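## retry 2 of 3
previous attempt timed out at serialization; input unchanged, resubmitting
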Amino acid sequence: MRIADWELKQFLEKEQAGISGELVVLSPEGAITRQPWPKRSAGLLRQGFLLRLSCNDMSESECLNEEASFDLLKRIFPRGLQPADLLAALCPEGWQNSSLKLLLEGGSDQQEAAIANLGHLVGLCLWDILSDNHDLILSDRRVVHLGSFRSAAGIISDFAAGERSIGFRSGEEYLDFYMGTWAIKNRNALKPIYRHIFSRLRECGVDWKYSFPRLHVIRFEPKEEHTGENFESYDSSASFAAGQKEQAENEQYARVQEELEKLHQESIELARSKPPPVTVQAYFEVFGNWPSGWPPWRGSRLE
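## retry succeeded, writing output
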């Protein structure tokens, strides 16, 4: 799972401080909703449970280091995210007739500024494809990813700026690309950009593996404490109480897993009645077939 230590630490500190948390739910179409954490969430956290949006099958793919990730982006876009190059590739019919014009100008006449922001918009779309729990399949058939959401955003930020920052980033530049295009309502307007990215991937011999959004419950097992107790100090009542507590926690953990599995199956059933996500549509238009991982009901009990 691609969960950075700092994300877990930040979340747990927030909850332990008594601040109410939110459950972030990402639909297959990219819409994000925020719901209050269930009342039981505090209890789950005390027991070492955490609900987390994670990859579809929890399989482990190889994490590219930052240098390899940067080099991969350089292969995809050898000249970087230069607005002039992107304008020619994405708007062959001219800026005035482009579907991206309204998206970037927002009804204003700021054409020059809008075109300058084209590179940033492509960077956001790169995050949607190269991060967001999706994988890349390299020409040697290795399945890889760019790390955590934050790490991928930081690498894209470096690439957009045209510089490497291998190692720890003290700034917050990654926030420019973190979570990609989640704030853009009309993601269908981004299809030309997604098609362009997939075209570049195909030219580089790189394939894409889609991951259907899914919530998992993560359990943090408490560290075993060696107290040096001997037979004389053994407390049978305390031991019995600890055993009962552990059994109750195990049962609750199993119930939460069952609930999340039910939600997952419901979300897959809902996806069957809707068009594929725009990223998946763009992939099909470039590669001529559905990506690995789509449809999500393939191989499931709903197939």
